[in-house]
Write a structure and sequence with these properties.
The chain has a domain of 87 residues. It has 148 residues and is mainly alpha-helical. It has a two-stranded antiparallel sheet. Helix 1 runs antiparallel to helix 4.
Length: 148
C-alpha cells in the first residue's frame, strides 16, 4: 500500500474517531442538561409540551396577570421556580439549575431573572395577607402610606 493511501486512511480514521468522541460528549452533556428537578408528582403540562411551549405559557400568564389582573398559579413563573429549584442552591439558575441547564444546551439566553427572583420561596419568607394572597415578605413594591 502506498504512503499516500495510508496517510488518507489514517486521516479518515482520526476524523471518524474524533466525531464519535464529540457525539459522546454532546450526548452526556445533553443528559445532564435535561435533568429534571421537581418537588411535585407531575408538572402542570406534559414534559414535551413544556419543553416546546413553556415560554408561551409564561408570557400568557404575564399578560393575564399584569394587563387583566387575573392571578392563577398553573403557569406562574413563581410556581415553576418553587417546584424546580435545585435542592442544594434553592435556585433554577447556576451550574445545576433547572432553567440554566436546558437553556445553555439550546444556546438560548435566560433573561427572566434580570428582574425576577431565581430562588424558591421558603415557608419563612411567605406571608399570607388578609385577602388570602401569598406574597414574599420582602416585596420590592413600595408601601402605600395613604392606606394607613
Amino acid at each position: 500500500m502506498s504512503a499516500a493511501i495510508r496517510s488518507t486512511l489514517a486521516i479518515t480514521l482520526v476524523a471518524l474517531l474524533s466525531m464519535t468522541g464529540a457525539a459522546a460528549v454532546a450526548d452526556s452533556h445533553g443528559e445532564k442538561s435535561h435533568r429534571i428537578t421537581a418537588k411535585g408528582d407531575k408538572c402542570v403540562e406534559p414534559t414535551d409540551v413544556m419543553r416546546r411551549n413553556h415560554m408561551d405559557f409564561i408570557l400568557h400568564q404575564r399578560d393575564d396577570t399584569l394587563r387583566r389582573g387575573i392571578r392563577t398559579s398553573k403557569h406562574s413563573l413563581k410556581e415553576c421556580i418553587n417546584c424546580h429549584a435545585d435542592p442544594k442552591t434553592n435556585s433554577v439558575i447556576g451550574e445545576d439549575g433547572f432553567c440554566a441547564g436546558c437553556h445553555e444546551y439550546a444556546a438560548v439566553s435566560v433573561d427572566c431573572f434580570s428582574c425576577h427572583n431565581d430562588k424558591a420561596e421558603t415557608k419563612q419568607s411567605a406571608v399570607t395577607h388578609p385577602a388570602g394572597d401569598t406574597t414574599a415578605e420582602n416585596s420590592s413594591l413600595p408601601e402605600d402610606n395613604n392606606s394607613k
